[in-house]
Amino acid sequence: MVNFMELLKGAPMDKADRQARESRVYDFLDGLDIDYERTDHPDEPATTMEACEKIDAVLNVRICKNLFLCNRQKTAFYLLIMPGDKPFKTKELSKQMGISRLSFADESFMKELLDLYPGSVSVLGLMNDSERRVQLVIDEDVLKEEYFGCHPCVNTSSLRFKTKDLTEKVIPALHADPITVKLVGTE
Length: 187
Hints:
The chain has 187 residues and is of the alpha+beta class. It is 27% helix and 23% strand.
């Protein structure tokens, strides 16, 4: 268990021990000239809300849920970003989006479309969606925060950058046309 996590500026100096998907994220953000901070937590991957709370305390950001969803036919895929403290109700989102039934997509689709695994889902995974098959959906409360926190496509590091950079630089560079929803956690 990590006793101390440090807030670091930018990409790691040495990326030799980093996964390719993580290194691509740093190159992507650097190419957009985005100032970001990170914390590494290899001894405590962000697999539980308790671990995320510790990480987000270091980053000083609000915890987000990143949910990979699909329609019943498994032909349409969605990446939902919402505040972590807000309950997720599939019926509420389905109704707002006019989709009869949403469910969690299989891990195989996550790997195929975003090159991600459970626990590492991030908006930055959309850079791997070359066919633009995943629709980005963002709860409006995420956009009200000054800073945005996410993983660099691995759950052993976490990032923080301005939400303004998310909306004005990252999302346009991903060629994503997000749908904004207002979730309250009721059906």
